[in-house]
Predict the 3D structure of the following.
Amino acid sequence: MTSITTAFNPAETDVTPALPTCMSAEGVSVFYSGNQALFDIGLNIPANRVTALIGPSGCGKSTFLRCLNRMNDVIEGCRVAGRITLDGENIYARGIDVVSLRARVGMVFQKPNPFPKSIYDNVAYGPRIHGMAKNREDLDRIVVKSLKRAGLFDEVKDRLQAPGTSLSGGQQQRLCIARAIAIEPEVILMDEPCSALDPIATAKVEELIDELKERYTIIMVTHSMQQAARVSQKTAFFHLGYLVEQGDTEQIFTNPGDERTEAYITGRIG
Amino acid sequence: MTETTSPKTISLRKGPANLARRNKAERRFRLYGVIAITVAVAFLGALLLTIFSTGISAFQQIYIALNIEYSSGLIDPKGTKLRDDLSRADYQGLVKQSLRDAFPKARKRRAKRQLYKLISNGAGFDLREKVLADPSLIGQKKTVWLLASDDVDMMVKGKISLETSADNRRISDNQVLWIRALAADGRLEKRFNWRFFTSGDSREPEMAGILSAVMGSFFSLTVCLMLAFPLGVMTATYLEEFAPKNRWTDIIEININNLAAVPSIVFGLLGLAVFLNFFELPRSAPLVGGIVLALMTLPTIIISSRAALKAVPPSIREAALGVGASPVQTVAHHVVPLAMPGILTGTIIGMAQALGETAPLLMIGMVAFIVDVPQSFTDPATALPVQIFLWADSPERAFLEKTSAAIMVLLAFLIGMNLLAVILRKKFEKRW
C-alpha cells in the first residue's frame, strides 16, 4: 500500500463536493434486451479531475462509461433509463444531437484503434468533420498541438504521413488520445486505456493522463487498482451492476466504507 | 524414479495403442486430398488441351495468291469511275476470271463450279475495298492474296481426311489437285487471322469473327456494371450498417440468398416478360441483356459486399463514432473504403459470371445472327458465350475450330478478370 500513498500529491487529495461537477448521473439503469446491466447509478464527476471506475469483470463499469457519450446507442436492444447531465444538460433528452455530444465527450478505447490512415489524418479527421479548421495551416496547427499534448509529437514529427498502424502499441494509444483531444472535448472517456500496453507504455500513458486533467475531465475504467490509485483523484467501485461506493481515491483505498470494496481492493473478490 | 513408472506411461517410440491407426488415418486422409486435386487438375488439363489443340489453328487462315486483272469491262463498264458504280460491280467475277485463267483445263460447268469454290465468297469484298480505296487499280494486273474458302482451309490444315472417298468429303479430287498445284507454285500461304478479331459473324466460317460478340458483351457488361454495382453496394451497406435487425431484414436477407441460387434462365424469362413485353424495350439489345445480367449479378455483389463490410473491425466504427462522426460519415469515410477491395473482388467475380452467362440472353433475343458490329446499347447484338453456342451449332467443319478459338478468347477474358480481382485484393487489402 506504500505505492498508493507515495503516488499522491497531498494538494490534490482534497476532492470535495466544492469542486464543480462536470457530468453527473442520477438513477441510471441500463438494459440489454431485457437484462438489466446497471441498477440505479448515481455519480457526480468533478471537472478537471481523473475519476476511476473500478470493479470486477462484468460489473458494468464499461457499460456506464459508454452511457456517458451515448456509445451504447449503436448496440442493438440497449436501453438507458435515468438522467445523465453534461454541464447540467440531460444528454438523453429529446433533441440532443449525439454528434455534438461526442464532440464534447471524447473517447479512448481499450485496444488502440487508429484509422488505417496516416498519423496526420488520424488526428485531423475529427477537426475536419467538425469544420474546426478554416484552412490548411489551421489544421496543421491543431494536429501539431494535439500530438504535442498527447506527448507523441517528438516521436512522430518526421513521419506524419506514415500510417498510424505502423506505430507501436503505446504510441498508437497516444495517437488515439491525440485524436480524441484534437476536437477539444471537455471530457475524455477512457476504457481501460492501458490494458493492451506493456508497463513502460502504460507508465507513459498514465503520466499523460495526469497532465491532461489540467485541461480535461477524465473518466477512466480500469481493472488495475494500482493504476486507479496512481492516477485518479476520485474512485467509484462497481459490483454486479451496482455502484457500491464512491469517494476520494485515498479514502476508498485506505478506508473503504463497504465490505465489498474492501474485499475487492484487498484481492479477495474480483 | 523407476518404481513410480505406472503401466500407463506412453512410450515415446511406440506411442499409445491406437497411434498406428491414427497415423494411418492421417496418411489416408492426405492421400485422398492429393488424389482429389490430381483428378481435378487432370480434368482441367484435358479440357484446356482439347480446346487449345482444336482452336489454335483458327488463328491462322489460308490465303491463295491469284493474278487479278482489274478489267475495266467488269468493274466499270460505263467508265464513270463513280463510287456508286464501282461499289456495285461484280468483283467475285474478277476472282472467277483469274481462277479460269490459272486452271484453263477446267471447262465443264461442274468443274468450274468446283474451281470457284477454292476462293472464299468474301474475296470479292476485299477486292472491292481495294478498288474503292485506289480506283487507279482499274485496268492493271496484280498478284493478290485472296482468302481461301473454308474447305480449302480445312484441307490444308489437315482437318479433312483425304482417305475417305471423294463422295463423302467436302472437297473433290480435282480440288485437291488444284490446291497441290497452287501449293507447289508457292501460291498458298498461312497467315495470321486478323479477320477473326475485326469482323462480325458470317455464314462463311473463314470470314466469321468475334468482334460483334465481343462488343455485344462489352455493352451488356457495361450496363450490368453501372446498374449492379451502385445498387448492390448501396443495398449491402444499408443492410449491413444501418438496417435494424428484425424479421423484415431477415426475410430480405433470405430472399437475396435465394436469388443467388435462381437458375439464370428464369431471369431471362423475367427479362422477356417485363422488359420486352411490358416496357417494350428493343429486342436483342445489349441494354436489355445488361439489365437482365444485372439482376443476376446483384445477389453476388450484395453477398460479397456484405461479407467485406462485416470483415471491417468494429473498433474502426467505434473510433469514428467516438470522435463525433455521424453514422453516414463513419460508413462513407471509413467502413466502405476499407471494404472496397473485397467489394471490388466480389463485383469482378460477379461480372465474370455475367460474361459467361448464356441462358438469359437466349430468352431476350441476343441469340441473333449479327454481322454488323454493334455501335450502341440498343443495336442488335449477341454476346461471346452466345456466339460460341451459335458456332457450336453450325454444321460447317471449319466452325469447330472457330468455336474453340472463341472459347479461348472468352477464357482469356475470364482469367484476366479474375486475375485483376486477385491483384486488387492483394494490393489494397489492409491488415490490422
Summary: Residues 61-193 of chain B form one domain. Chain B touches chain A at residues 244-245, 313, 315-326, 329, 333-334, 338, 430, 432 (CB under 8 Å).
